[in-house]
Amino acid sequence: MTVLTDDTLPATPRAVRDEMIVFAVMALLLAAVPFSGLYPFFVMQALCFALLACAFNLLIGYGGLLSFGHAMFLGTAGYCSAHALKVWALPPELGILVGIAGAFVLSIVTGYISIRRQGIYFSMITLALSQLLYFIYLQAPFTHGEDGIQGIPQGHMFGVFDLSKPTVLYYVVLVGFLAGFLLIYRIINSPFGEVLKSIRENEQRAISLGYRTDQYKFLAFVLSGTLAGFAGALKVFVAQNASLTDVHWSMSGEVVLMTLVGGLGTIFGPVVGAFAIIAMQQYLAGFGQWVTVIQGSIFVICVLTFRRGVVGEIAHYFRRSL
Amino acid sequence: MADEFILETEGLTKEFAGFFAVRDVTLKVRRGSIHALIGPNGAGKTTCFNLLTKFLKPSAGKILYKGQDITAMAPADVARMGLVRSFQISAVFPHMTALENVRVALQRQQGSSFDFWRSKSVLNRFNERARELLNDVGLSEFANTPAVEMPYGRKRALEIATTLALDPEMMLLDEPMAGMGHEDIDKIAALIKRISAKYTILMVEHNLSVVANLSDIITVLTRGQVLAQGHYSELTKDERVKEAYLGAGHG
Amino acid sequence: QDKTIKVGVLTDNSGLYADLGGPGSTLAAQMAIEDSGLAAKGWKVDLISADHQNKPDIGTAIARQWIDVEKIDVFMDVLNSGVALAVNNVVREKNAILIDTGAATSDLTNAQCSPNTIHWVYDTYMLANSTGQALVKAGGDTWYFLTADYAFGHALERDTAAVVVKSGGKVIGSVKHPLNTADFSSFLLQAQASKAKIIGMANAGGDTTNTIKQAAEFGIVAGGQKLAGLLLFITDVHALGLKVAQGLNFTETFYWDLNDGTRAFSKRFSERMKNKAMPSMVQAGVYSGLIHYFKTLEALGGNPHDGAKVVAKMKEMPTDDPLFGQGTIRADGRKLHPAYLFEVKKPEESKGPWDYYKLIGTTPADQAFRPLSDSACPLVKK
Amino acid sequence: MAETATAEAPPKPAAGGNILQVRNLEAWYGESHILHGINFDVNAGEVVTLLGRNGAGKTTTLKSIMGIIGKRTGSVKFNNEDIIRATSDKIARMGIAFCPEERGIFSSLDVRENLLLPPVVRAGGLPLEQIFDLFPNLKERLNSQGTKLSGGEQQMLAIARILRTGASFLMLDEPTEGLAPVIIQQIGHTIARLKKEGFTILLVEQNFRFASTVADRYYVVEHGKIIDGFANADLAANMDKLHTYLGV
Amino acid sequence: MQALYAQLLVGLINGSFYALLSLGLAVIFGMLNIINFAHGALYMMGAFVAYFLLNNDYLSIGYWPALIVAPIVVGIFGMILERTMLQWLTGLDHLYGLLLTFGIALIVQGVFQNYFGSSGLPYAIPDQLKGGMNLGFMFLPVYRGWVVVFSLIVCIATWFLIEKTRLGAYLRAATENPTLVRAFGINVPRMITLTYGLGVGLAALAGVLSAPINQVRPLMGADLIIVVFAVVVIGGMGSIMGSIITGFALGVIEGLTKYFYPEASNTVVFVLMVLVLLVKPTGLTGRAA
Ligand SMILES: Nc1ncnc2c1ncn2[C@@H]1O[C@H](COP(=O)(O)OP(=O)(O)OP(=O)(O)O)[C@@H](O)[C@H]1O
Ligand SMILES: Nc1ncnc2c1ncn2[C@@H]1O[C@H](COP(=O)(O)OP(=O)(O)OP(=O)(O)O)[C@@H](O)[C@H]1O
Ligand SMILES: [Mg+2]
Ligand SMILES: [Mg+2]
Question: Which PANTHER family is this protein grouped with (chain B) (predicted)?
Fold first, then answer.
């Protein structure tokens, strides 16, 4: 697969400083949401997808691996958490852990199967695996088929934070998102991230330097899948249901869209993209039958005019990496 | 004697659907020498390299490196044993700076490559060594230039620096001078000469003056087989070599 | 007293079911508001609509926002069972009102019933009951099911099979097909080989229409077997054309050509539709449900913005409107009205566009739906 | 060096029909301005060589003539027709053929298909037998995938395939790169033969020794300009200058 | 046992749709390097054009001419798309083409849905192909027989055109390096446009063929696309023969699944894909990605 982000700039101290500033601004803006009159529920939802997109971006933007099945981690973690909360009546923090663990196990299995395929074949095998999983979830009784697991209790986080209060829930989700985001940022800028980048740039060369590249890609896959699972677990508290839509291929497609719209291989792009797409779904919902047409037109315009994505274009304009 | 020869092959053969690209090649590379592999186009030189570094699986034959049989190893593991190659078409990490290119190689030996929870600033401890290496190949001024933006000849030099960073025992260089201007050729040749003090080098090269000046011993390959072996001066007198490789009017 | 009302039509505007609800549901709501004459009496009624894209999480997101930000009082339509169940939870939690006219799942008034929800038009239990009973009675005593492989299909098959057996018929087989199958010939061949008299289609939408179309191609009906649609709408018949659809049996609770009341409404409705379509029962339900809701508020003398309270009052008051006639709402939130078994006319019997059905049987309101004695709804005191 | 760079008028070509005339050719890769006004001529039946250091703009010059650089200005006259605005397929059909530096062998085609790919634009191309005489390797490997050939074999294939087309004006970009001496000699003979048969050849070479065996005239490119030009006969007299230009 | 024969035959019939659709997709991928997510929408357009040609007061020219006219009309539409949008994507990663065509699919489907509703329009089997034959083990509608035969012919003709003619070599070469092929004197942009038209035309043809069998609905292609895409991958991206064979084979395998484990019949293609890719990393006949 060709390198998608052909104008990635090497990270310099200046870039790191830029990123820190943008991160601080983002965190502050998000923290101010409950006071802004903006509807926090919408923001929470967007945060979950933003985390998912960031996790996905870790794999494609920095590992060069395009997964077409990332919804499977989102959905699996969602079902696991939902089941743990509703049926086992676990407290929220354990519910989240169960979800993450589910995604972790799944990413090990699917990663093991798929990681050796190249390019589009890798994408397709992840798609196929996620479709198999969809089938399993459709058949398995505990998911309640297309009705989904509904009315999941929100409970008290660590026994203290009452998650049924929107503001409390909002901050819990925000903290979760920021933690996930920082972890991803750290992974990208870690010794491991450096190797990953070199593999994406020129895998043959990395091998000849003695790197067992499959192992690095595998680790990246597992990290990405597990973090996507974290997003799925958080989402359960926000939506209070877990349904098949989260495992459907069109969800995997949506993640790709979010990342592309925001800017592939940029650190903040997926966040912007997730907010853009979720906002679009929310605000276009009132446009009646024209929703799909408008949505389609936006994609077309995106691809034809600002292909680097929102953040990518901005970064390119200022010659910064964001 | 494993000591004398760092790399040996026995009856190395590679067949592509009925076509023998390499056939029954027995090669011994003496430790500390510059050994050149020459031959007409399509003789199987690159294929040989690919076999030695495990990028291809041999159809038959055996490869011994430092006395150990590496015939069935994975490419990354061979590299880890200190047998490192460069590519016929220049291979760098294009969107990383020269410094980062070298650092990736240095990092591999230090075992922190899987640390995804640490800041990459831990890699800064390699910077000094990386700069040294860049300096060795004359790239100090390019340290912070992304590799894509470097001129062709400099990329080759960078590749060599990256290879050196692994502190290999033996380097395989595939046409290190291809596509270079005269200036660069001289620089790289000098560089190879210099590093050969420490490493064993097996190289493929078509530039005869380079081969003549650098190599201690030359193996001539044609049609996948060893045609002759010897010093440059001997080979230029060999009629078969003239016919197959050097061409009339040479020597 | 507060005299403002906000109505939200949450439906599928762009997907598979857009013909069934979609813009038509919004139009029906609009007409209900106009016909109620509330404006003249000093009420202010606002209407908004949105597309849930058949995704439960989008549905819940919109529902929350509507209640929290837009202050919506009542949700109409909400077709698609998955979305309906999700919205049902939100509405209950936030004490709004859901008058569901589109979802099929009978769970809305059974295990998942809620003091804030009324299920208006139809449900799987009723469909199974009416169609199953009537067909067995008419001699269709051996059944083979083509079932969509998801909870809704399973429920439909299970309920129908129970009715068939209870009525003295026999189920001799079934095959489960995945949702959104394009080709049914394999399944139809199996159904054909079973020699069952009735092939029950426990599926919906495109799956049903494709089944019907391909059944005609394979000569199933010509070979003497009968197709029974367990969930089929007039929009589907329109899409198939009478040539293919003729002879089908199925149940609806509304048809535009039932009586003068339905004809008058439908004529007005169709004139305002872009493609001049007649109303589906889902759309008719939106009108009927809203009319009753408005009457209740008038009776209360103002809008208390208290979902449970209004719904309780709605259950007290008998319903009466030109589309569904007189009826009642049960404690579990089930709206009761008769169910009609129709047969699709032959092309030569049809007098014009949308003249599709012959009424061949009516199940009275008190027998059409699941008896309270079988109900798992906690609101039902036993 | 700077003084010579200002030379406005290109060195006068020898007598014989002027087939290619390049004036003030400028070209850009995206934002970067690479050619800053190239001026030179090629006469029918000549072999002209462009020399210059890495990155001087030789390849870019050829590509601009071929019409495959997006942004280019100035004038390029081929047989007195200005082709600066023409698309590359039109240019090719006027009888110019180009053998790129990176060879451009197609991996989805086998060797035979690669060889037969360029359409014949006019009569007078070399017949296949002659091509196989020149490059026997190719004949042996006709059915393998194009990019499975060794580096040098790919180079041969790249040259071979444009000889078939009947284009009489050939542009070869570093045809000897990566070739064994014996093959380089063969290519030298080929060029000589082509010349005899009336082909005109514009050559880009790093291998100066090789160029000197085939070229009639030289131009030196530096920083996107032609800074000097002389005939093969004057080579000895210009050797010193050349050393400075090329850093040999 | 008899029932099994019937399932095999029915599977083969379905396979011919997969083959036709994946053939077009493979042609477009192989030649333009674009994963044409609009394929399903264009297939749907083919069926709709057939519908207009049948049920229009002015143009009621019926099924047979539609077999030619619909692919041409949709093909021209495709060529306009290519000219105005897709051509700007040459040289970019697959992802962009995929996204763009996905957007186009949404637009096309949305517009059709607005004008024709979601439940679709009736289309009857042409009179000449009505009825069926009793094969002993099953009742075979004449129309289905026609579909198999006709698709096979179209598939083979396309394969021949692409793999065995000069045109095909130009196309394959142009996929890899359009600039160079153009510099050989071939008008690559025009060729690419025509090829896209061809691929799209094949989709439309499948649409016409399916109109009498499947309901003519705006979303009829939306779910198909992913299966068809899977077929192309299993066959080996860009391989024409691979797609044809896999298309027919998938039909048969699906038919068997419908018999033994019907619930999984939509999923079996993905099981197949995982298995094939595990054994052969680039599909049955594919070259490296
Ligand atoms: N993967 C392959 N499949 C089929 N044939 C191959 C493959 N790789 C190489 N060959 C053939 O093997 C022969 C040797 O190729 P190789 O690349 O080793 O030559 P080389 O000596 O490096 O030549 P050069 O000097 O031109 O680079 C060539 O004829 C080539 O066509
Ligand atoms: N695709 C490109 N985008 C941007 N700059 C380019 C591109 N290709 C070449 N250049 C730049 O244009 C300049 C001229 O390049 P060109 O390839 O014409 O040089 P050359 O004289 O052929 O060198 P060489 O001997 O290395 O082939 C160089 O500085 C190079 O870096
Ligand atoms: Mg080689
Ligand atoms: Mg060049």
Answer: ABC TRANSPORTER ATP-BINDING PROTEIN (PTHR45772:SF3), CONSERVED COMPONENT OF ABC TRANSPORTER FOR NATURAL AMINO ACIDS-RELATED (PTHR45772)
CA–CA separation, A166 and A163 (whole Å): 7
Which residues line the pocket of ligand 2, CB cutoff 6 A?
B 152; D 29, 32, 34, 52, 54-60, 101, 206
**Buried b / exposed e across A171-208, counting CB within 10 Å, b at 16+?**
bbbbebbbebbebbbbbbbbbbbbbbbbbbbbbebbbb
pLDDT tens by residue, C121-151: 999 899 999 999 888 988 888 999 999 887 7
The crossing angle, in degrees rounded to 10, of helices A166-188 and A13-36 is: 170
Beta strand pairing call for D169-173 and D200-204 = parallel
- In this complex, which of D87, D107, D121 lies closest to E176 when CB atoms are compared? D107
Across the interface, which of A1, A121, A131 has its CB nearest the CB of E270? Answer: A131
Question: What tokens were used for E227?
Answer: 């299966």
Instruction: For chains E and B, tell me whether 3 or more CB atom pairs sit within 8 A of each other.
Output: no
For chain E, the farthest-separated pair of C-alpha atoms sits apart, in whole angstroms, at 60
Q: Which atom of ligand 2 is found nearest the CA of D58?
A: 21
What 3-state class would DSSP assign to A243? coil
- A198 lies in which domain range? 13-317
For residue C340, count other CB atoms closer than 10 A to its CB. 22
Q: Which two tokens stand for residue D222?
A: 């530096």
Structure tokens at D16: 């014989």
Domain containing A105 — which CATH number?
1.10.3470
C222 touches chain E (CB under 8 A): no
Report the alpha-carbon distance of residue D119 to residue E167 in Å, rounded. Answer: 11
User: At CA D147, angle to CA D142 and CA D148, rounded to 5?
Assistant: 70
* Ordered structural domains, chain B, with CATH: 1-82+168-250 (3.40.50.300), 93-167 (no CATH)
Element (H, E) at C358: strand C357-363
Does residue A5 form part of some domain? no
Q: How far is the CA of D34 from the centre of ligand 2 (A)?
A: 8
**Alpha carbon of D27 to ligand 1 centroid (Å):** 37
HSE-CB of C167 using CA atoms within 13 angstroms: 24
Residue A175 forms part of a structural domain: yes
Nearest to C13 among A144, A146, A288 (CB): A288
By the 8 A CB rule, do B107 and A195 touch? yes
- Residue B138 gets the label, from left (phi > 0), alpha (psi -120 to 50) or beta, of left
- Burial letters for A68-77: b for 16+ Cβ neighbours within 10 Å, e otherwise? bbbbbbbbbb
Structure tokens at E160: 């021949």
Q: Tell me the shortest Cα–Cα distance from B39 to chain D, in angstroms.
A: 7
Chains in contact with D, counting 3 or more C-beta pairs less than 8 Å apart as contact = B, E
E89 touches A: beta carbon within 8 Å: yes
Is residue A3 situated within a structural domain? no
**Residue among C284, C293, C245, C234 at smallest CA distance from C263:** C284
C38 Cα–ligand 4 center, Å? 82
Look-up of token digits 């459709």: A138
Is A6 part of a structural domain of the chain? no
Domain count, chain A: 1
pLDDT digits (tens), chain A, 322 positions = 333 444 444 555 666 777 788 888 888 888 887 788 777 888 888 999 999 999 999 998 888 888 989 999 999 999 999 999 888 888 888 999 999 999 999 999 999 999 888 888 898 899 999 999 998 998 888 888 777 887 788 888 787 788 788 888 899 999 999 999 999 999 988 889 889 988 888 888 888 888 888 999 999 999 999 999 999 999 998 888 888 888 988 888 889 888 888 888 888 989 999 999 888 877 776 676 677 888 888 888 888 888 788 888 887 777 766 6
Looking at the domain D18-246, which fold is it? Rossmann fold (3.40.50)
Question: Does the beta carbon of E167 lie under 8 angstroms from any beta carbon of chain C?
Answer: no
Phi-psi region of B54 (alpha: psi -120 to 50; beta: other; left: phi over 0): left
* Residues in the 5 Å CB sphere of ion ligand 3: B 46, 88; D 150-151
